[in-house]
Amino acid sequence: MNKKVAILRGINVGGKRKILMADLKAMCQKLGWKNVVTYIQSGNLIFESSQQNTELENVLENAIKEKFGFEVPVVVRRLNELQALIDNNPFYNHDADVNQLHLTFLKESPTAENTDKTLSYNYEPDKFEIDNKAVFIFCAGKYHQSKLTNTFFEKSLKVGATTRNWKTVLKLQELCQSQNIG
């Protein structure tokens, strides 16, 4: 079995698409996932499964739609994939202010054409780099004031996505490593 992280998009925001983490955890346990742990109300799961990422995404999306009655996009990454993202963030170093860093998880790799088009945008002083199924973001100011939003990347790259701040990314890694999983 492999350690995994599932990141849900757009739940418990402004009182809409509400899912209690206890209910989400119980549902995942019923799906046969092991050692399920949730982190904050925005929909972050840590668990163990031998299933492939895309299969897990589809299973959880369908289970949420059936139980809660609305669609929630889900992105799943193995722990070693999450670790590689942390290790390869071009904006993350010992001088970095983690409050300025964000990671957009893409459901799939964008086409070269859409990647090139997106890379042509310049929203300085904010910066971004696309790396396969991830977008590393540096915001000089507040994320909610940046044009480098989740919606921007979904529209320009034409793939599903969900974004987390860097503190959450690091916490998910820490929880994966501290949990007695696998």
From TrEMBL:
Organism (species): Sunxiuqinia elliptica
Superkingdom of origin: Bacteria
The protein's name in its UniProt record: Uncharacterized conserved protein, DUF1697 family
